[in-house]
Design goal:
Structural class: alpha/beta
Number of strands: 11
Shape: globular
Radius of gyration: 22 Å
CATH class of the largest domain: Alpha Beta
CATH architecture of the largest domain: 3-Layer(aba) Sandwich
Largest sheet: 7 strands, mixed
Oligomer: single chain
């Protein structure tokens, strides 16, 4: 009989391409992954890995089994969700991946509410950009995701995932206090007025960076990204030092440091914040309870 846990390990190795990356995704050691693969070889009666330089490579048989693992694990997940729904208990383990700003603005109060209302539910939280969390959700590495898109760059939802919008989040542009447009706090400015930058943003490949580059180029501006920092608090510190501008959503923003002015932009910059989960877990009470807690937190969020 094939072990579901070992099939999950094989699927992670097949998706990530290495034992090291699979171990990081599954939050286990590389030796644990190797041991699970060795045991799965004995269970399946076929070789699943072969040496390739200093690493390993999955065999053709392993890739066949990994494809079956997707269907097997989805069926097992759906069955467990049905059992949980029948029992009606909000319990067990739930892994949530969230944007940092949504962690502060939504997840923190939602997790407090869940802990008070459902002490048998153990929630594990990890922060991840949308570009990382959506694939992790699709592959079963996490159970629930808080992700975002921007009004001019809608989020594509892969097959097998469901989503609900939690809140619309407006963004301003942070500029140094001495900037010529810093006095325009009462009136909106056009993004083109800020020109090529220098802009401070997340690293290339992070959703906010790619969106900002796309938006500025669509307005005929070739942006100059002077500095990259993925945390908004760090970006604000760099703006305060007079090193550039940064797009700053209001959700989870926190205190604006001295030396920074927020200016509104016309047309308004706004992003949508979503909760996403796998359709196979839709009937699981823990998913419903977590999404409800996030909706409650979103209704109270100060991002206007």
């Amino acid at each position: 009989m094939l072990s579901l846990e070992r099939l999950r390990v094989l699927r992670a190795v097949a998706r990530t391409g290495s034992v090291t990356a699979a171990a990081a995704e599954l939050h286990v050691t590389t030796s644990a992954v190797s041991q699970q693969l060795a045991k799965l070889e004995r269970e399946s009666g076929t070789a699943l890995v072969e040496r390739s330089g200093r690493g390993i490579r999955l065999t053709d048989s392993a890739h066949v089994l990994a494809r079956h693992a997707d269907a097997i694990l989805a069926m097992a997940e759906r069955a467990q969700a049905d059992v949980d729904a029948q029992a009606g208990a909000v319990a067990g383990r739930l892994v949530l991946a969230s944007l940092p700003t949504a962690t502060r603005g939504l997840a923190a109060p939602a997790l407090r509410r869940l802990a008070d209302a459902h002490p048998a539910l153990h929630v594990e939280l990890t922060e991840a950009d949308t570009t990382e969390s959506i694939p992790a959700l699709a592959q079963g590495a996490v159970d629930l995701v808080i992700a975002n898109d921007w009004s001019n760059a809608p989020l594509a939802t892969p097959d097998g995932l469901a989503k609900t919008r939690l809140v619309e989040d407006i963004a301003d542009v942070a500029v140094p206090a001495g900037h010529a447009l810093a006095g325009a706090r009462g009136a909106a400015v056009r993004l083109a007025q800020l020109g090529t930058g220098p802009w401070i943003c997340g690293a290339p490949g992070v959703s906010c960076h790619d969106w900002l580059a796309f938006t500025l180029r669509s307005a005929g501006i070739e942006p100059r990204f002077a500095l990259t920092a993925n945390e908004y608090a760090t970006q604000l510190s760099l703006v305060a030092a007079g090193l550039g501008f940064a797009v700053m959503p209001r959700l989870g923003r926190g205190q604006v440091p001295a030396g920074v002015r927020m200016i509104a932009v016309q047309p308004t910059l706004h992003r949508n914040i979503y909760a996403l989960w796998r359709t196979t877990t839709a009937r699981r009470p823990a998913i419903g309870a977590a999404v409800s807690a996030l909706r409650e937190a979103a209704s109270r969020a100060d991002n206007a």
